[in-house]
Structure to design on (462 residues):
């Protein structure tokens, strides 16, 4: 017996193409060219594992009524929605209707097949699916990364789809991973996902913030110490790396680690053992190392601030998270998710943002990324909002910042030049005007090769 999947699409050529792909992966495939065939199949077959539904089946133009109807008919069968004429509103509507995943063109068959496998990995309905799991060695993973189980990874942009598909593959391996991206893009969430969907998921996940631990304490915290190793060591301590044994050690802000500690960590990774303070005995450990940074490690290596040998040990697999300004099509989905989450938390009934407010949010560059977006929505909830959030409901600092940045040119280089000129090249003031950090400002100045013209003093001043 093989798991049965229904492909519902008006396009027979496309159905055949997808059918060949699924047959090759060991599924039984049932084709449906209209809604009536799907409903008849649901009545006749109790062993259906999945529905793949194209919104073109719906002739009303809305595109999600079919998914909603099928979910009401049989909510136990997961539905993946394909939407040729997609929009953020349609994505939200499809997910609210009950779809477990959502694809808009362009997408690869590999991404779709990965989603199919994820959906089925959580299902326990048909006996055929149990046999399929045994033969294919599928490990249970979330059917849709970023909505229910991992809410901060919400995103249906092409970039985020590719990242989530890649994350699912990386999670199944035991390789070290380096996660890069600006502050607030969700690096910690990715690390948590990689652990919770890996073969090590039953073992500890230990978070080590390299920027928060003073260098004098870092070694004892990481490697542990014996009783009496130093003043105040009243008892022995295993250390964070030993506590992570069998599981995952997550080094957050790895770029802030001192060269001395880098050498120690390199030794741990190479030898898979630690040496506690106060003893010469080596303690074996088995950990997967995931690290994250918002710094440019290539530049740090050039400056001699980060070891190349450690970098190559950490960067076996790399996941780069894009800033929110580069995937603004995900903002509506993120807002919908945060509102839903905060409604439950605060006991509110907020339905969403007005069109005017949403347009403002889409124009803003979000230097703090997803974290800033979520904090902004939560700040609104604290002030007892109405059902529909208008521009006046946004926090006052955000409204002021939006008005300031709205007056700047849309082109990033032109915006940077404008901010520098209007502040007489005061970089601190320019950074505040752009709502950037000074590090970001200097990076952008270097990126766009911007230099202030040398000006000679007037002769009358000499």
């Amino acid at each position: 017996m093989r798991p049965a999947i229904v492909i519902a699409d008006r396009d027979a050529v496309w159905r055949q193409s997808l059918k060949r792909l699924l047959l090759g992966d060991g599924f039984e495939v049932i084709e449906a060219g209209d809604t009536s065939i799907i409903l008849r199949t649901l009545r006749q077959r109790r062993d259906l594992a999945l529905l793949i539904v194209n919104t073109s089946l719906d002739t009303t133009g809305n595109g999600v009524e079919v998914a909603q109807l099928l979910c009401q008919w049989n909510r136990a069968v997961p539905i993946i929605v394909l939407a040729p004429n997609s929009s953020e509103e349609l994505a939200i509507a499809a997910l609210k209707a009950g779809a477990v995943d959502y694809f808009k063109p362009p997408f690869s068959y590999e991404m779709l097949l990965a989603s199919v496998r994820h959906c089925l990995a959580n299902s326990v309905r048909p006996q055929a699916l149990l046999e399929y799991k045994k033969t294919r060695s599928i490990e249970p993973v979330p059917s849709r990364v970023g909505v229910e189980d991992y809410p901060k990874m919400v995103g249906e942009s092409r970039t985020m789809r590719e990242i989530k598909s890649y994350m699912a593959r990386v999670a199944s391996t035991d390789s070290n991973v380096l996660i890069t991206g600006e502050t607030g893009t969700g690096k910690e969430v990715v690390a948590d996902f990689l652990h919770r969907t890996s073969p090590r998921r039953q073992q500890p996940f230990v978070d080590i913030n390299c920027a928060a631990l003073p260098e004098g304490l870092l070694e004892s915290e990481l490697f542990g110490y014996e009783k009496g190793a130093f003043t105040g060591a009243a008892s022995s301590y295993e250390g964070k790396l030993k506590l992570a044994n069998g599981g995952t050690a997550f080094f957050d802000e790895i770029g802030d680690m001192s060269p001395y500690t880098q050498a120690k960590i390199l030794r741990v990774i190479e030898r898979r053992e630690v040496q506690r303070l106060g003893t010469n005995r080596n303690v074996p450990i088995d950990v997967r190392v995931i690290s994250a940074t918002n710094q440019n490690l290539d530049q740090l290596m050039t400056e001699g601030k980060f070891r190349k040998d450690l970098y190559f040990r950490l960067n076996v697999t790399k996941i780069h998270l894009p800033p929110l300004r580069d995937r603004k099509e995900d903002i509506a989905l993120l807002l919908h998710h945060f509102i839903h989450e905060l409604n439950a938390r605060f006991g509110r009934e907020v339905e969403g943002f007005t069109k005017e407010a949403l347009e403002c949010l889409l124009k803003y560059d979000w230097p703090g990324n997803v974290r800033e977006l979520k904090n902004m929505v939560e700040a609104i909830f604290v002030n007892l909002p109405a059902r529909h959030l208008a521009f006046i409901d946004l926090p006052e600092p955000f409204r002021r910042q939006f008005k300031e940045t709205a007056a700047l040119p849309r082109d990033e280089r032109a915006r940077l030049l404008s901010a520098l000129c209007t502040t007489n090249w005061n970089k601190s003031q320019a950074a505040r005007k752009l709502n950037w950090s000074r590090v970001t400002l200097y990076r952008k100045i270097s990126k766009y090769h911007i230099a202030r013209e040398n000006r000679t003093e007037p002769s009358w001043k000499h």
About this structure: The radius of gyration is 26 Å.
